[in-house]
UniProtKB/TrEMBL annotation:
One of its GO terms (molecular function) is ATP binding. Gene3D superfamilies: P-loop containing nucleotide triphosphate hydrolases. This is ABC-2 type transport system ATP-binding protein. It comes from the Bacteria. It holds the Pfam family ABC_tran. It comes from Amycolatopsis xylanica. The lineage of its organism: Bacteria, Bacillati, Actinomycetota, Actinomycetes, Pseudonocardiales.
Amino acid sequence: MANSAISVAGLRVRRGGRVVVDGVGFDVPRGVVTGLLGPSGCGKTTLLRAIVGVQIVAGGTVTVLGHPAGAPPLRRLIGYATQSPAIYADLTVTESLRYFADVLRAPKSDVDRVIAEVGLTDHADKLTGSLSGGQLSRANLAVALLGKPELLVLDEPTVGLDPVLRDELWGLFRKLAASGVTLLVSSHVMDEAARCDRLLLMRDGKLLADDTPQHLRERTEATDLEQAFLRLVRETEVTPS
Ligand SMILES: Nc1ncnc2c1ncn2[C@@H]1O[C@H](COP(=O)(O)OP(=O)(O)OP(=O)(O)O)[C@@H](O)[C@H]1O
């Protein structure tokens, strides 16, 4: 699709001597929230790594905002939050973000903006090492928001957060999408799937579905997305490709 934020075709990745992403292809439209859902170990992080250009791939193509994944112009267009926060425990939230803003050449004024966006203004002067798990994941997300990237790739950003914070973060994702940002968000919690505009469902390195939540429910005649996922799994088991 010419206007896609991300185009993946025939992607294969080997890790630890085995194929962990196996012939995956899809397009991610711009300005919407796409959820990447699937059980632990199915290949979500590996696929996200291929999209941000830090994963050696065995085959296929990954095009991001019109460039091959990993191309230098993409560095300032993509915000990537990894699953394990990569911020320094002995700096405060503000100091950490100032540091990353410098590295990313984002404007200094971004620091206060992103801290407010993730709801950490009251904790801005705390050492990141003394933050709770949920506060730390929000600080990690704040790094990805520096420089106003066009594409946000977020690896399980809500893991370990209580329902209220999860809800607030999804509110932020929706706000960002409404302002034109494209979000690709991974999760292994099916109840988050319903919050996405589109879903990519993965299992064992393969893509089971690329659809809207509503259409997925309709075509599997399922009452919820967890059931839809299970029905898709059974379909693939009955008709092996
Ligand atoms: N550094 C590595 N070396 C070898 N194999 C790896 C490595 N990292 C991941 N794998 C394997 O690749 C497969 C896909 O892992 P990946 O982390 O992409 O899954 P995931 O869906 O993101 O899982 P989770 O939801 O638990 O984060 C798994 O079988 C995993 O064991």
